[in-house]
Amino acid sequence: MLVELVRLLRGYVIFEAGGNFTERLLNITSQRGIVLWNATPQPGLLTGAMSAAEYRRIRPVARKARVRLRIKQKRGLPFFVKKYKPRIGIPIGGALGLVLMLVLSNFIWTVNISGAEHISNAEVVRALEENGVNVGAYKGSIDPAAVKRDLLLKIDGLGWMSVNLTGSTAQIELKEMTDRPETGSTQIPCNIKAAKDGVITRVNAKTGISVVKKGSGVTRGELLVSGVVPSENGINSYLHAEAEVYADVISKLEIKIPKSYEYYFLTENYIDRRRLSLFGIELPFSASFQAFENSVFYQRDKNLRVNNTVLPLGIKTQTECEAELLRVDCDKESAEKICANELALYEAFKNGDSSIADRTIKITEDKTGFDFTADYILNENIAQSVDFSVTE
Q1: Which of 13, 169, 307, 368 is deepest in the core (most CB within 10 A)?
Q2: Angle at alpha carbon of residue 344, lines to 339 and 350, rounded to 5°
Q3: Maximum distance among all alpha carbons in the chain?
Q4: What is the pLDDT of residues 55-102, one digit of tens each?
């Protein structure tokens, strides 16, 4: 392999020798110390290879020995340079491109983050940038172990991570902490007490002794199901009480809707401004200078990819959308519709585990707006486990 490389750098020719005395060529090369390889005799011919410099030396001698030489192929760097000498920019550009590629391979041009489901990618990117892991960073300045330690300390919910520098890509793999499932112990004695004030509608005591009945009024913290069970011999036993105790509880929601309010909405007018991103340097090439009085922005990045590898060349498009200030006057009918939507959201999400036993809505109006008061009677499970020690 090394010999072949040296031959390519020096340049060599594959030739054909003809005539009645082709064997004389072998004697001449041997006498003059010329290296000849791949010599293959054929009827009336001899083929072989030798360096370009030695081929020029042997031609006059071979002619005197009545041996005709003819070049079949020219191989190696000297012939390549001679061929492209009129276009000298091609080899120079190739050499510079090779140097540039070797230099740029020492920098990070792609940061891939995987495994984050609940942790914000923006938070991870910000923490990585604080540790010097970003597009354009020198790989030699990055300590993967130090980056890993810092991010595990800074980011809540991050249980494990790895930082792998492969080529010009920083591959960040994350694993989030998993919450340990709650395993309620049935060995710890506890009572069931009321979490809210209410009127009992149903008691389902699985273990323990119920001390309230249907229709009883209870206050927050009052005992509902006891975990202390007396026996005939006067010795108490202590249980982990389990029960579902449903009660009607009172809840109130107040909503105020102004008669006049302002808000911004996006019109159909927008402006795109594009920038060429090259090795972390951004060059604008859009001539849009118009700006809106009120606007919002969002940005889209599109980088060139080759074989699923993101290259440090792309286009960033920033879109500016016009936001128009709109003043709305609200009458009673519109306010009622808004209130109905607010109540639907409240009932669906805030009190999703409760059933509505009754609801009364009151409306009052003043100069500034409408006040809605919704009084609810909700039927819900008010049972709350409270541990106790046997010495109590």
Answers
A1: 13
A2: 115
A3: 135
A4: 888 888 787 777 888 888 888 878 877 777 767 677 677 788 888 778
Residue matched to tokens 């009607």: 248
Distance CA 267, CA 322 (A): 6
Q: Are 337 and 294 in contact (CB under 8 A)?
A: no
Q: What DSSP state is assigned to residue 287?
A: -
The predicted model scores a pTM of 0.47
Cα dihedral sign, 58-63-67-68:
positive
With beta carbons less than 8 A apart as the criterion, state whether 169 and 109 touch. yes
CA 77 vs. chain centroid, Å, equals 47
First to last CA, the chain: 89
DSSP E strands: which ranges in 79-232? 110-114, 158-166, 169-176, 190-194, 198-207, 209-210, 217-218, 223-226, 228-229
Strand partners, 260: 329
339-359 in b/e form (b: 16+ CB < 10 A) is beeebeeebeeeeeebeeeee
Residues 89 and 79: their CA atoms lie apart, in Å, by 16
